[in-house]
Write the structure tokens for this entry.
Amino acid sequence: MRVTPPAPAMTYDVTDSGLLRVKVGQEEYQLTSEFSWPNMPENGWNRLGGDNAGEWKVSIDSSNADRGEYVIHGICQFYELKRTIKALDGRVIVHDQLTNTSGNDVAIAFDHTVVPVFTPKTLYFFGNPGKPANTDVPQNDHTPINTTVYFAADKHGLGIFLEDDYYRLQAQYSRNRNNAVISNRSFGLPAGDSYTFEWSLIPTSSNDYYEFINQVREILDVNFTLHGTSIFTNDYLSTGTYDKNLKNLYDRMGLGIVFSPDVWLGGTSFYMASGNPRTQ
């Protein structure tokens, strides 16, 4: 039986600017966020953490900070953000509820940047260890298969896990030196609509990426036995002859389960069809 090691001591707080500071052991991480608004000037983002160059007003409710709960409200003329931060089962969960108050459809781009206040040993994006510390990764990668980022420090670690469906589908990832940036450039809200993005910050007692993944698996409740022959493939799902190929596989191998690990609907007419309330 696998035993999950006890999580290291983790503390966090929120500053007056909305900056989220998380400390795992002796290592500190800082989370800033910025959100676009229609016709904003260059670099005129609505920000949490740092200087706010946008046009929204931010208020922070820390009345339950002794229980680890903070509620941040950002209000502009187009939408409202309600960010709820609280502790749950040894991790920090962040819920970002965006509500369109403008009377028109609104596209909202946003970036979340996690800044380690130290030099991490390794920075993992979706399970892939990154380049050495203090190097840039110019690409802006996307993968809904593994929506994780993980900082390996000297003794501990901190993972970020995106949980809701639209965030998993739409998120893009990039690296700026030792900082991890999680972005969305595909989100829009119809007038009066609301949507909540859900993600977690998960500490680990070691700097082992797979300790983090084991915690993610427990969150998803996916530690169970698969009954029957199974196969991972995307070749058969992208040829346009899916039914025939799948039947051939089933007959030849006696398949019970077929996994398609690489599903991205962003380039299809279905995903971008007019009337889809979550895309622009």
Notes: The CA atoms of residues 166 and 180 lie 20 Å apart. The chain has three helices and 21 strands. Residues 209-220 form the longest helix (12 residues).
